[in-house]
Design goal:
Length: about 90
């Protein structure tokens, strides 16, 4: 939702759709246009980096569960679906 709002709303503000299309960071461009180049833009960049790092943890967890379920279904080798005796978690995958 945020990406669609960024694309649609950025086309209607001062830099216009050409600047949005050429920008590598359209959300930062919109934020700078609305709030200026002050501390707010740096704060947004810091929050974006924190969100990126948090998403890495989620991706790593999801990949392990994906490998585990594909192994149980027979698409990957069976040794990838071995679970821990106490915790019942897929520690190999």
């Amino acid at each position: 939702i945020a990406s669609f709002l960024t694309l649609f709303l950025n086309a209607g503000i001062a830099p216009g759709s050409q600047a949005v299309g050429a920008s590598d960071e359209p959300l930062l461009l919109a934020f700078k246009t609305i709030f200026g180049d002050g501390v707010g833009a740096s704060l947004l960049a810091l929050i974006a980096v924190a969100g990126l790092i948090a998403s890495f943890h989620t991706i790593i967890y999801a990949y392990g569960r994906n490998i585990f379920s594909l192994s149980r279904a027979g698409y990957f080798p069976k040794w990838l679906s071995i679970t821990h005796a106490t915790r019942q978690t897929p520690y190999i995958a």
